[in-house]
Amino acid sequence: MNRREYLQEQRKQGRRILGVFPAHYPKEILWAAGTVPAEIWDPPLKPGRARAHLQPYICSVVQQGLELVLSPLADQVDGFLIPHTCDSIQNTASMIQDYLDPGKPLFFFQHPRAPYRASSKEYYRAQLENLARELGPLDSGELARAIAQGTGIDRLLHRLWEDRAQGGGGLSNLELYRLLRRGEWLWPEDHRAELEEALAGGKGPPEGGPGTSRAAVVLSGVLPPSEDLLVLMDRLGLKVGGDDLLACGRRLPEMDDREEAAGGDGLELLAQAYFRMPPCPTKASPLADRLKHLLYLARRCSARGVIFNLVKFCEPELFDLPGLQAGLKKAGLPSLVLETEAAGSGGGQLATRLEAFAEIIN
Predict the structure, then answer these.
(1) Tens digits of residue pLDDT in 162-220
(2) Which residues, in sequence order, are bridge partners of residue 79?
(3) Which of 57, 81, 58, 86 is nearest to 69 (CA)?
(4) Pairwise CA distance, residues 187 & 148, whole Å
(5) Distance between CA atoms of 318 and 84, rounded to whole angstroms?
(6) What number of H helices and E strands is found in the chain?
(7) Residue 6: phi, psi to the nearest 5?
(8) Are 287 and 323 in contact (CB under 8 A)?
(9) Quick one: angle between helices 227-235 and 348-361, nearest 10?
(10) How far is CA 288 from the centre of its chain?
């Protein structure tokens, strides 16, 4: 099923659908409340209504998100959850609540920013409790099952990236990100099944690629490149071996023995997982931590370069970019910056720059 058909089927099964803006939110609480989170990153909508409310220099992720809220497609969801990811999303949330009245429940989630203190965890715990109350009575057994599903998915994702880092994993770049991004709207059992199938597939190198001689790269930014650019990367022999994307890798916490540390407290488990996630500019992570993480990803997969796929006008990403590029250059890693629009195609100019970068690192 495609996304729309799948969500319609979930509704028939009695589950609510909640449209979720990027990026960090406790999806396990939504699952436990019988709610399917349908993340809103880059809906393929023609810009129109949102332009009357937002400045033209607001990033396209926010523009397209508001476009969906104002479009008939909003009837597919039963409400919206808007985390405080950046100033643009936060201000848009206030606009929707105070002036636009989507006629559906609005939920807000504010997570703490670095530098983290003891009070940061207390604050995050309070935010989790507040969201759980707003979504309805939360059964501890359902929450435990949802957390177990989330943990299982995280472990599979770690396995997938470890396989790619070691030179395995037969998925093409396009197949990889199609699989990962289906997690933005699949029910956990369904996403887990797809991940297990991919890991057990044992496919060989993608057709048309140079096989095992493909050069590994690390992707950083908000969203993966457009599908035509991912196909081009495969054709050029560039394999994504490490992921530092807000939509993907930055939401994958490090694994540990969570249950023993939390003593069976579900909300404590979720709080621990949040503070084990990779550094991210939307959480005010120090630049040094971000550079260290990129270098770690590059070393793990023997990457020959880093590709920054940035959404135009994304201030958190752009503020860090000069320092990250300088640090990578000092470490001997070339980098390429691509600026794109959400739900946009690659375009000839970006393809030419990608081809030139592939020649350099190969």
Answers:
(1) 999 988 878 999 999 999 999 999 999 999 999 999 999 855 454 444 444 589 999 99
(2) 18
(3) 81
(4) 13
(5) 18
(6) 14, 8
(7) -65, -45
(8) yes
(9) 30
(10) 22
